[in-house]
Design goal:
Blueprint lengths: L9 H9 L7 H5 L18 H9 L39 H10 L29 E4 L2 H12 L1 H6 L3 H7 L2 E2 L12 H12 L11 E3 L33 H5 L6 H15 L14 E2 L5 H12 L13 H9 L6 H4 L40 H7 L31
Parallel strand pairs: 1-2, 1-3
Antiparallel strand pairs: 3-4
Helix pairs in contact: 3-10, 5-7, 8-10
Length: 414
């Protein structure tokens, strides 16, 4: 079984940092020689600024191996990174890496439509939505974003049957939601979008800042909170290869959606001077990034430095994804949408949306359906596992009647 804790050792992190350009972490790294032979202490749970810094600087970390030009793909030593291709060239037009980082820093794409490719007018090229008021940038796991937006919209959500992106626009919240082919998604789009958000330059953002649908400090790479880093957890696109074929076993995904939120938090930790404040926030609190150009350039150096995939790296194939969910190593998405009676969310932090409908407006019951006959979130996610009748790929909920994208934002149908 994969253990994400294998690379959380402070000594190992120091050794990784020593190979990197000297930065704010270098001083502490130089002082750790005496501890090099000591046993690795068990890390405290929860994400911190120091843990983010270590993960970004560790050349074997997943956070360094998510930057392939093809979304969700594993980085290859001889393959293209996302900064090697132009953002609007359909993934085919080459560019110098320095051009990408320069354009990102100056906000060349900030006023574009970050919902491009969605259904209807929302997805039109160059036409970002018009918000009713200043729209904060919202980040989180897919299902926590959905829950947060649904709670803000309230009964309007059920009346209009809003889709995931529409729901957040109605809630006056900016999210990254690219589904088009002109500007294909990869994590370079995350860095562009976050750099814009850090400077208050997203369309309609103004002074609204940044919000998190799940508190960054509650994340834990080891998975103690139910969401491990590098655990094949979350949504992945369909594959055209048969799940049990030799070809598919050899062609592993690079990461899944849950991993992206870890990366996003650690990017803000790197480019914001007030990065320590990230880990004092509760879900829904406003964060205003004190953006640092110097730290952005340091991030560029980190990302362009050599990386390597460890021999024991997770092989994120559809079979592994199935096994992870079958053994409950990935928290069920529906469970994360539930509310506790004490007004707190599942991670124990104060829940500003307590009492509001969950992201799919349903409650979990033993029979899997709510009082009005609709399937529960857990039932929909169960239907998306590979051994469920009719399921063709991770995230395909069509095997259960009533499970669709309109009900639960993570669902799709093949």
């Amino acid at each position: 079984m994969y253990d994400a804790r294998r690379r959380t050792c402070t000594r190992c992190a120091r050794e990784s940092i020593a190979r990197m350009p000297e930065t704010r972490a270098a001083a502490s790294a130089r002082g750790g020689a005496a501890a090099a032979s000591a046993p690795c202490p068990k890390p405290a749970p929860g994400l911190t600024s120091a843990k983010c810094d270590n993960m970004l600087r560790d050349p074997t970390s997943l956070l360094r191996r998510m930057w392939a030009a093809d979304a969700w793909a594993k980085m290859q030593p001889d393959g293209s990174a996302c900064w090697d291709v132009a953002r609007d060239g359909g993934g085919t037009r080459k560019q110098a890496p320095e051009q990408f980082f320069s354009d990102t820093l100056k906000g060349a794409a900030c006023r574009s439509n970050w919902f491009e490719g969605n259904v209807g007018r929302l997805g039109n090229v160059g036409q970002p939505p018009k918000f009713a008021e200043e729209a904060a940038a919202l980040l989180g796991f897919d299902e926590t974003i959905d829950a947060y937006c649904a709670a803000r919209v309230g009964k309007l959500d059920k009346y209009l049957r809003l889709r995931h992106a529409e729901r957040c626009v109605k809630a006056n919240l900016n999210i990254l939601s690219l589904f088009g082919s002109r500007v294909p998604y990869n994590v370079c789009r995350n860095l562009e979008w976050q750099t814009c958000a850090a400077q208050g330059r997203l369309p309609g953002q103004g002074s609204a800042g940044i919000r998190f649908a799940k508190a960054p400090r509650t994340l834990d790479a080891t998975g103690s909170s139910g969401k491990p880093l590098d655990g094949c957890c979350g949504w992945l696109p369909n594959s055209t290869l048969a799940p049990w074929s030799t070809a598919h076993r050899q062609h592993a995904y690079g990461f899944a959606t849950d991993d992206v939120f870890f990366l996003e938090v650690c990017i803000f930790n790197q480019i914001c001077r007030n990065h320590e404040d990230l880990f004092t926030l509760n879900a829904g609190d406003v964060f205003h990034c004190d953006f640092s150009e110097e730290s952005f350039h340091d991030l560029q150096k980190i990302l362009l430095s050599p990386w390597s995939e460890p021999k024991d790296a997770m092989k994120c194939t559809r079979r592994v994804i199935h096994d992870m969910h079958a053994r409950s190593l990935c928290t069920r998405r529906g469970r994360l949408g539930t509310r506790r009676d004490d007004g707190r969310s599942d991670d124990g932090t104060h829940d500003r949306t307590a009492g509001a409908p969950s992201f799919c407006s349903c409650t979990d019951k033993e029979n899997g359906r709510s009082d009005d006959g609709k399937p529960s979130c857990s039932m929909c996610w169960d239907a998306a596992t590979l051994d469920a009748p009719g399921a063709k790929a991770p995230g395909d909920c069509s095997g259960a009647v009533g499970c669709d994208h309109e009900l639960c934002g993570f669902c799709h149908s093949t």
